Amino acid sequence: MKLLHRIQYETEPYGTNQYSITLTEGKFAGVKYVLGKTELIEDKKKDNLTLKYHYDIIESKIEDSDKPEFETLIGDILMQMLSDGVKNNDLVYSGGTDAN
Predict the structure, then answer these.
(1) Is 99 among the domain residues?
(2) pTM for this entry
(3) Which residue range(s) make up the domain with 38?
(4) What Å distances lie between residue 54 and 45, 66, 71, 84, CA to CA?
(5) Separation of alpha carbons 100 and 97, rounded Å
(6) Is residue 98, in this structure, part of any structural domain at all?
(7) Dihedral through CA 59, CA 37, CA 24, CA 84, nearest 10?
């Protein structure tokens, strides 16, 4: 997946092992949120992966009518972060179980 443009955001430590993400441009500039549990769900029949994530908004407010657009945007940011982590070889995985 290639994004049309890089989405601008800032991160800062939040709690002991998380980072908050603040959007710095566009309709949702100023919204700060934290990602929670994130998982890839495999559908072997369709040869498809779905990205599922939980989030908490910690600053600002999103109207109910804007939630689908906001969730798509933060999903795109998450994909951007994953892609950058793989490209830079600095993606950190924690939790879960090792398949080996």
Answers:
(1) no
(2) 0.80
(3) 9-87
(4) 25, 17, 10, 20
(5) 9
(6) no
(7) 160
Tokens of 29: 């500039």
pLDDT averaged over the chain? Answer: 87
If DSSP states are collapsed to H, E and C, what string results for 61-98? CCCHHHHHHHHHHHHHHHHHHHHHHHHCCCCCCCCCCC
Residue 4 in any domain: the answer is: no
> How many separate domains does the chain show?
1
73 backbone dihedrals φ, ψ, rounded to 5°:
-60, -50
Which pLDDT belongs to residue 85?
86
> Is residue 2 included in any domain, yes or no?
no
Q: How far is the C-alpha of 3 from the C-alpha of 1, rounded, in Å? A: 7
Q: What is the pLDDT of residues 17-64, one digit of tens each?
A: 889 999 999 999 999 999 988 888 888 888 888 889 999 999 998 999
Name beta bridge partners: 49: 42
pLDDT average, residue stretch 90-94: 73
